[in-house]
Task: structure prediction
Amino acid sequence: QVQLVESGGGLVQAGGSLRLSCAASGRTFSSYAMGWFRQAPGKEREFVTTISGNGQITYYADSVKGRFTISRDNAKNTVYLQMNSLKPEDTAVYYCAASYRRTAASTQAWYDYWGQGTQVTVSS
Result:
């Protein structure tokens, strides 16, 4: 069982930055692919980015490419999401997810564990 706890959300003005963190329990963090997803009010949860277990492979949704960066520190059992040039349309609850398959993937069904989410609000 893996427990995921997100932090770092908040209110920021358009153009600003935030860094989200997701701390995972367990001893085999490096064997999990990690992903970030988000859900805006009235919309379905959508893929944001993912990183493979060894951190060498990443994928991004087109909407965040060039603005967001995913990274991980396997020694700290933590994955990060650096969000720059934030836009009002980035407003959502952001969820961290873990898959026991090392390979990164954008499909929600790929992931076995989910955090509770952290709210990100971008004001215009």
Summary: The radius of gyration is 13 Å.
